[in-house]
Amino acid sequence: MSRFSSFAEFYPFYLSEHQSPTCRRLHFVGSSLALGCLLAAIVAANPWWIVAALGAGYGCAWIGHAFFEHNRPATLAHPVYSFIGDWAMYKDMLTGRIRW
Q1: pLDDT digit string (tens) for 37-89?
Q2: What range defines the domain where residue 58 resides?
Q3: Distance (Å, whole) CA 98 – CA 24
């Protein structure tokens, strides 16, 4: 996190790495699936759903970066800020602040 001293500094960079609408949609789908898997983990009392949540969330996001955005996910260099950025972008998409 050496380049950024706060999440407020990081988030514009994060959004610049998600300019493709398809990549953003894949992030949204992956995050939604991850939430569903976490709910299933709680309801079923089965921790394997947590593994599925990670696979769904990161799998969809990384496919978006590899095939549509053509860049490396920010998760690799800034894992904490990137995780927060995923959920900030999710909220911004839900509220209409960011285009689908």
Answers
A1: 999 999 999 999 999 999 999 999 999 999 999 999 989 899 999 999 999 99
A2: 20-94
A3: 9
